[in-house]
Design brief:
Elements (H helix, E strand, L loop, with lengths): L2 H9 L8 H6 L9 H19 L12 H14 L3 E2 L4 E2 L7 H13 L1 E3 L4 E3 L8 H28 L2 H12 L2 H7 L5 H31 L22 H14 L8 H20 L4 H26 L2 H4 L24 H18 L11 H4 L6 E6 L9 E7 L3 H4 L2 H15 L2 H21 L14 H16 L16 H34 L3 E2 H6 L4 H4 L1
Helix pairs in contact: 3-6, 3-7, 4-5, 5-6, 6-7, 6-8, 6-9, 6-19, 7-19, 8-20, 9-10, 9-11, 10-12, 11-12, 11-18, 17-18, 17-19, 18-19, 19-20
Length: about 550
């Protein structure tokens, strides 16, 4: 066999004769059920669940903004709208209802109690401590987000170990733990944004498999028009992309800040569609990608909008909501038209809420700026008590929204390393992670120019992507890319050299995860409000001027 024939044989594979380089470019993670991977996932998720549900009913009473969201959630379950039971009138709220609906489901299942308004309602499934009821949904959302991150990490990195490492780091983060044990909205925002990202990643894999099957069947991508494109039956529709639109609608229905991820994820879809066409050999990948995929993106946007409006059903089909009827608010420019009137009034309600957000500049004790967040410059105290018997003259019990310091102080170095490695390797994963982090953080720097009042928990939707950045770098350390000879003429590294580098890298990565776990264990008491001596509490205030 000639040298040319050998090269041709090594460059192609069976089953359609697709060149091996194209097959590698279109390859995705093995989609078959992997029992060992799911077992490892179950262990990580179990750890996350135990940490989030253990002692969930403490501390007693409503802490921090639970005083608003737990009450609004009960109003939604009871009357379909947020309701002020003290004044017996509709509540004016500035966040969409979905997160409160989810909190309310926990109250419906396990009971609700409000001493200020003398409301005490047993649960429909079982009656527990009322705090468990309004915190239950957050704990579920936090646990599910760990599950999602494990599976997303495994698919992106093609490694069960790295996927589980990402999930474990998220499970052992104090910031995530506190949000998972408190009836606030941000954990639901994080969950839906992460789920939408996962759907977009699955869409990438599905579309690449679609092109691979078409090429194996003999498709010539150089042909113009539909002759050079894969078949588009209903089974081949981008269902995962459409699901991402629904999930982004859910995220926006928790907090409007989810909208910043919409253009980011749409850009990822376009870039990946251009990439798959370029890999397949399409002559004009940009033109074809835009012509083929923009209609699907528009449909996903329509689904996002419809999903968002649907979450307001309680308000739309009730006469009790704030701004719902023009007769109750004669000077608000509302309408009582039978069909279009509710939508006009909903728009006016949104205008009023937007005005509130843009003028929110009142100083707050725990406000912080975006450049402080990753440095843990000003965490938020959710709960504090000096009561109790701890065996010392002074005691302390606090819930502090503080990220596990060793993990969070790794984020900025990890982002820098991720950018470098992504450029050097031209790795789509690095770009996806960086763009998602930018969508979660950079808009707040713009709002900081107007001195808007902001808090560190605005970081929540970016947190999983920051953890993925750290995991990416750990993967680069634990499994370095094969190196060529360091000097011209030097022999290439042997298999033993590569094995030694991977062993050292694996030990370094494992040691880092262990140190994060130890750091989490040390700060755990101030994540869950455990009673301790004042001296022990003070020892954990590493940045006492900022953390107290």
């Amino acid at each position: 066999m000639s040298t040319t024939e050998q090269a041709a044989g090594s460059a192609t594979s069976g089953g359609g004769g697709i060149p091996a380089v194209i097959r590698r470019r279109l390859a995705t993670v093995d989609a078959r059920l992997d029992g060992h991977a799911w077992l490892a996932t179950a262990v990580v998720v179990a750890i996350a669940g135990i940490l989030r549900f253990l002692g969930l009913s403490g501390p007693k009473g409503k802490i921090f903004d639970e005083v608003y969201y737990a009450r609004d959630a009960y109003g939604l379950i009871d009357r379909g709208v947020e309701w002020n039971y003290k004044d017996n009138g509709p509540s004016y709220v500035v966040h969409p209802p979905l997160g409160k609906w989810l909190i309310g489901l926990g109250e419906w299942a396990f009971g609700y109690q409000d001493q200020e308004t003398n409301i005490s309602v047993p649960g429909h499934l079982m009656t527990t401590a009322p705090e468990f009821g309004w915190r239950f949904a957050a704990a579920v959302a936090g646990t599910l987000s760990v599950l999602l991150l494990v599976r997303i990490g495994r698919r992106m990195f093609r490694s069960t170990t790295l996927g589980c490492a990402a999930g474990l780091l998220l499970a052992l983060d104090g910031f995530h733990l506190v949000l998972s044990r408190t009836a606030l909205l941000d954990i639901f925002l994080m969950l839906f944004v992460l789920a939408a990202f996962g759907a977009v990643v699955l869409d990438r894999d599905a579309r690449r498999r679609r092109w691979a099957r078409a090429l194996e069947a003999g498709l010539d991508p150089s042909l113009p028009g539909r002759a050079g494109r894969p078949r588009s039956t209903w089974r081949e529709w981008p269902w995962w992309r459409l699901l991402a639109g629904v999930l982004l609608g859910c995220a926006c229905a928790v907090k409007w800040s989810a909208v910043y991820f919409v253009p980011a994820f749409a850009l990822l879809v376009i870039l990946w569609e251009v990439g798959v066409r370029r890999s397949a050999g399409v002559r004009r990948p940009w033109r074809d990608a835009l012509l083929d995929e923009l209609p699907w993106l528009l449909l996903a946007g329509v689904l996002m909008f419809v999903t968002y409006v649907a979450t307001w059903s309680g308000w739309l089909f009730s006469d009790d909501g704030y701004y719902r009827l023009a007769s109750r608010y004669p000077n608000a420019g509302l309408s009582d038209s039978p069909v279009i009137g509710p939508l006009i009034n909903l728009w006016e309600y949104h205008r009023a809420a937007y005005g509130f957000h843009t003028q929110l500049d009142d100083p707050h004790k725990y406000q912080s700026w975006p450049w402080q967040w990753l440095l843990l410059g000003r965490p938020v105290a959710f709960y504090w008590s000096g009561d109790g018997n701890c065996g010392a003259p002074s005691c302390a019990s606090e819930i502090l929204l503080l990220g596990t310091p060793l993990l969070w102080w790794s984020f900025l170095p990890a982002l820098a390393a991720l950018a470098w490695l992504g450029l050097a390797r031209r790795d789509w994963r690095a770009g996806a992670i960086l763009l998602s982090v930018a969508a979660g953080l950079l808009p707040w720097f713009w709002f900081a120019l107007d001195n808007r009042t902001m808090f560190s928990f605005y970081t929540a939707p970016a947190l999983p992507f920051l953890v993925l950045a750290v995991t990416y770098v750990l993967g680069a350390i634990a499994a370095p890319a094969p190196a060529t000879a360091a000097l011209p003429g030097a022999p290439p590294p042997t298999g033993q050299d590569v094995a030694d580098r991977r062993l050292v890298g694996g030990v370094i990565a494992g040691a880092y995860v262990l140190l994060v776990a130890l750091c989490f264990g040390y700060f755990y008491p101030i994540f869950v409000g455990r009673l301790m001596t004042y001296a022990d509490w003070s020892a954990r205030m590493w940045l006492d001027g900022r953390w107290i």
